[in-house]
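Why should sequence recovery work at all? Because a backbone constrains its sequence more than one might expect. Tight turns favour small or flexible residues, buried strands favour hydrophobic ones, and helices have their own preferences. The token representation captures these environments compactly. In the example below, the structure is given first.
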């Protein structure tokens, strides 16, 4: 019984020693080589140049969630399409898998901060040579024995210089970058769906214009044909009327192709086959909503691509520390505790316990410049990530300014184009009346009708461009917002 107590005390002492060494390693691990992350700084303008007045008309919107920014358009059909996009789009699914991969890599990097513990079992039977020196047997007799081993082994790397913790920092920053990329992919995909949708609506509006125009042109052709049959018009005027009618019909078919392609694109965005989606013709494009732009500095926290670039800078910073830590020794602890016996029956007897505890350190002496090259590469990668961050910020400002300018000038263009449509319609009526009175040829009517058609289509296209610019502006601002509308 006394021997058993003595054995337990010995095992307890070894365990206390291992804990003491582990505690010491935690204290030593407070040092980390390499630079710490510092947020990049870029020049920020106090306000946007294009934000000097109302950019659109519509209902005031003070708060829009990032997750459903499209609801600012108050369009149930768009709401349904965006909901399907969020759940079924393949680009979003791919981005989600990237987040899952990065999360797993972070968990793997974290695991290296803890001991690795395992169990190993070995069974062997050994026969030594008869004449082997010092085999413990009489010369000419072979030694044969069994060896059954059941140990628990543990190993632990003391992170004395921060290599493992820098690896965890890099992995975690990469995970955060993947999460930001998912948000950006989701935002870009939602914006593409909205743009395709409003392009489809604009195409429907143009098709409506062409349908009405074809009806008017058919009446004009019938009138010219009747006048020709009564000797009041020439065959040239009939040919001119027929040419305009056929040309407009061809334009209508070209728009049908465009509509089909937009519908197919929407089906892909929704994760569906093209034949499974059919969108009915929709009414005219609505007016774009008012969008609170805010300050340029807000983009640094609102845009997910800027957040992704920032996290890439953090990951690159940590990798410099990983490369620099390679210059320093790697210190490891190994421990073993278990049983060893010549037969399995008595293996678990306390007399057969075994234990060992050791430490090792490896340090580079000559690497032919490999470590220096690793540091140089890590530093170059950091500079690249920093430049990419600055570029992302500058491009984000440009995108907002572009859309603010577009919306401002499109608003003025829309007002002028509305006047042009009215002027063209008035000129058409005058030309028709003068033609019926025999004062002008039918060519004047053709020119007037072409002007009406061209101006009406241009007006429709401007309305579509305003909706597209509104969507792109919201995307450029990072999606939703909280605040007041544009002054």
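From this structural description, the recovered sequence reads:
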């Amino acid at each position: 019984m006394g021997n058993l107590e003595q054995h337990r005390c010995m095992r307890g002492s070894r365990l206390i020693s291992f804990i003491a060494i582990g505690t010491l390693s935690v204290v030593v691990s407070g040092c980390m080589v390499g630079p710490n992350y510092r947020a990049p700084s870029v020049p920020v303008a106090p306000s946007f140049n294009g934000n000097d007045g109302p950019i659109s008309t519509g209902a005031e919107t003070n708060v829009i969630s990032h997750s459903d920014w499209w609801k600012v358009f108050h369009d149930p059909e768009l709401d349904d399409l965006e909901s399907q996009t969020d759940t079924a789009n393949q680009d979003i699914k791919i981005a989600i898998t990237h987040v899952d991969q990065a999360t797993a890599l972070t968990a793997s990097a974290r695991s290296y901060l803890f001991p690795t513990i395992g169990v190993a079992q070995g069974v062997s039977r050994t026969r030594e040579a008869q004449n082997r020196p010092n085999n413990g047997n009489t010369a000419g007799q072979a030694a044969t024995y069994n060896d059954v081993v059941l140990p628990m082994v543990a190993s632990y790397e003391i992170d004395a210089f921060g290599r493992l913790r820098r690896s965890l920092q890099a992995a975690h920053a990469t995970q955060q970058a993947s999460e930001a990329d998912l948000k950006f992919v989701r935002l870009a995909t939602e914006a593409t769906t909205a743009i395709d949708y409003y392009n489809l609506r604009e195409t429907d509006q143009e098709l409506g214009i062409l349908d009405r125009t074809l009806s008017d042109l058919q009446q004009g052709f019938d009138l010219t044909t009747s006048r020709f049959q009564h000797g009041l018009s020439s065959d040239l005027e009939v040919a001119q009327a027929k040419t305009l009618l056929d040309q407009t019909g061809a334009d209508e078919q070209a728009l049908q192709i465009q509509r089909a392609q937009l519908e197919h694109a929407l089906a892909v965005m929704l994760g569906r086959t093209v034949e499974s989606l059919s969108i009915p013709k929709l009414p005219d494009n609505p007016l774009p909503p008012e969008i609170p732009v805010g300050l340029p500095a807000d983009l640094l926290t609102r845009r997910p691509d800027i957040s992704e670039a920032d996290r890439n800078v953090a990951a690159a910073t940590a990798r410099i520390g990983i490369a620099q830590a390679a210059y320093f020794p790697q210190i490891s602890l190994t421990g073993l505790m278990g049983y060893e016996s010549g037969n399995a029956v008595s293996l678990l007897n306390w007399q057969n316990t075994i234990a060992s505890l050791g430490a090792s350190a490896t340090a580079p002496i000559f690497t032919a410049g490999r470590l220096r090259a690793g540091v140089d590469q890590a530093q170059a990668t950091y500079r690249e990530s920093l430049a990419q961050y600055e570029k992302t910020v500058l491009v984000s400002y440009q995108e907002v300014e572009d859309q603010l300018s577009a919306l401002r000038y499109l608003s003025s263009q829309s007002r002028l184009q509305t006047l042009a449509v009215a002027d063209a319609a008035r000129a058409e009526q005058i030309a028709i009346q003068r033609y019926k009175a025999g004062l002008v040829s039918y060519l004047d009517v053709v020119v007037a009708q072409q002007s009406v058609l061209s101006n009406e289509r241009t007006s429709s296209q401007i309305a579509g461009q305003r909706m597209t610019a509104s969507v792109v502006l919201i995307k450029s601002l990072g999606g939703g917002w909280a605040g007041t509308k544009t002054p």
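A few observations help interpret the result. Residues 1-29, 53-61, 483-487 have pLDDT under 50 and may be disordered.
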